[in-house]
Amino acid sequence: MNSFPVQPTLYQNSSLVQFSDSLRLLFSIAIPFYGTHATRVEENGHSRCQWKYLAFGIATHRTEDWTVACLLKSEAFCSSEHCGHVLNLERGRRFLNWTVVARLWGFQDSNNSLGCKVATSKHGTRIAVANWNVLYIWALQPSALIEQNSNGYYPSLLQSPGSAMVELRPLVIPLYAVCFKLRFTDVEDELLAITDRGLMYWNLGPLGRGQRNTEELPAWGDSV
Questions:
Q1: Is the pLDDT of residue 145 over 70?
Q2: Residue 99 to residues 58, 72, 116, 158, 214: CA-CA distances in angstroms?
Q3: Would you say which domain of life the source belongs to (predicted)?
Q4: Which are the contacts of 217, defined by CB distance < 8 A and separation ≥ 6?
Q5: Would you call 108 exposed, middle or buried from its count of C-beta atoms within 10 A (0-12, 13-18, 19+)?
Q6: What pLDDT digit, counting tens, does each position of 92-102 carry?
Q7: Three-state DSSP class for 36?
Q8: What are the phi and psi torsion angles at 112 (to 5°)?
C-alpha cells in the first residue's frame, strides 16, 4: 500500500517521462506492483533475461497545475548467468526510463492533509485510490498493459487518440466517511478501508453483493 501526499514528493524514483508527443512530465513513481521475467536464447547461443515492471505514478503540470495518474512500464536486460531469476518488485523503483501505458481517468488530486491512499491487489488486476471520502477503483489486465497492449486486449476505442496509451475508467464509490488506510486482502477482489466510521469491506468480484453491518462497542462502564 502506498500513500501520496497532497503534492507528490519526488524521491530518487522520479523520472521525466514522455506523456504526449509535445509534453514530458516529471512523474513520482511508486514501487512496481506487477512484473514479469523471461529468459531467451539469442542467435549467438547466449541466454539473456528480460525483466518488465508495471508501476503507479502521478505527475503535476508545473505551469497549468493539473495532475494526472498513470500506469508506467520499465524493463531491463541481463545475462542469464548473472540473473537471480526471482522477481523483486523493489528493484524496479530504481529504474529511470519509463513509458506511460495507461491513464487512470477520474483521478482527482488531493487537496487535504491526508492525501490519496493507493492500494493494488495481489495479482495486479485492481488498483484503488481513496481521496478523502470517495473511492476510485480501476480494473486492469496487467499482462496486456505491461506489453503495451500488443495482443489487442484493449480495443482501439479505449486508446488515447494519436497514441498507444490505454484510457481506463474507474468505478466510483462514495464512502460517506473519511478514509485513513486502504488495502486489498490476499483475495484479489477483497478491499478493506479504515475510516472515521469504522472498517469497510468490499467484494469486487462478479458475485459480490452489497451489505452493511453495524456493531456498537459496549460503553466503558459496561465492560468493567
A1: yes
A2: 13, 5, 23, 18, 45
A3: Eukaryota
A4: none
A5: middle
A6: 877 889 999 99
A7: strand
A8: -130, 170
